[in-house]
Amino acid sequence: MKNGFKRALSMLLCLTMVLGLFCYAPEASALVDSSGYECTAGRNTKGVTFYLKADVDMRRNTWNGIGTDKYAFEGTLDGCGYAVVGLITYLFKNAGANAVIMNLGVNGVSNGANAAGIASTLSGKIVNCWSAVKVGGTGNNGGLAAIVTGGKIINSANYGSVSGTGNVGAIAGRVANAQIECAYYAYNSADNNGSVGSRDAASSI
Questions:
Q1: I want to staple 122 with a disulfide (CB 3.0 to 4.6 A). Which of 55, 86, 151, 165 is the partner?
Q2: How far apart are CA 48 and CA 172, in angstroms?
């Protein structure tokens, strides 16, 4: 892992625990080792639920997203109606098949390939969420998720603009075997490309 990612994610998890922004199951301590700097980013998150108890301001933090290509986040994040504000990229880099992201809002900016407001790669669920993130990049760009594979986006909305050079959608950039239900977006969200940039026949939109 990059040192910046370690510091940023440790800061978000450790400091918010100390300040009471998250209440969490005992297993949540497995995210960070005894030094407080090495995040396992998904190895031990299955079955763990995190609850936001206040808005989280990310404007002064570097950030690379929760989860890695090797270790997806597999727990639940319940935003309880609060928001993560000031993002400089997606909140989750990799949300796995067991991940549930719910009752959460985000704002900020997200640029580059596979850019999105909430999740760059989603195989789990986004439920009752909203994004006001300004998304732009080189392809597979979505207002809520960039690439959705076997995942679901339900009862969620995007209010941010989305642009890119290919597979650009107001809700998701590219979907495969995915379900998008009761998802809404602002009229200017995706350069008139609609809710998804590309989809396969197995997806339900």
A1: 151
A2: 26
Please count the other Cβ atoms lying within 10 Å of the Cβ belonging to residue 132.
18
* Measured distance CA(50)–CA(72) in Å, rounded: 15
Q: What is the DSSP letter of 39?
A: B
Dihedral pair phi/psi, residue 31, rounded to 5°: -70, -30
Task: Give the whole-angstrom CA distance, residue 41 versus residue 70.
Answer: 9
Label residues 5-38 b or e (16+ Cβ within 10 Å = b). Answer: bbebbbbbbbebbeeebbebeeebeebbeeeeee
The separation between CA 8 and the C-alpha centre of its own chain, rounded to angstroms, equals 15
Rounded Cα distance between 61 and 22, Å, is 18
- Residue among 92, 91, 15 at smallest CA distance from 54: 15
Q: Residue 198: beta bridge partners?
A: 174
Model pLDDT for residues 62-81, shown as the tens digit of each residue: 788 888 888 899 999 999 99
Question: pLDDT at residue 96 above 50?
Answer: yes
| CA distances for 55 relative to 22, 70, 85, angstroms | 10, 29, 7
Question: Region 109-115: what's the mean pLDDT?
Answer: 95
Task: Tell me the sheet residues that pair with 132.
Answer: 107
pLDDT tens for 42-57 read 457 888 888 888 888 8
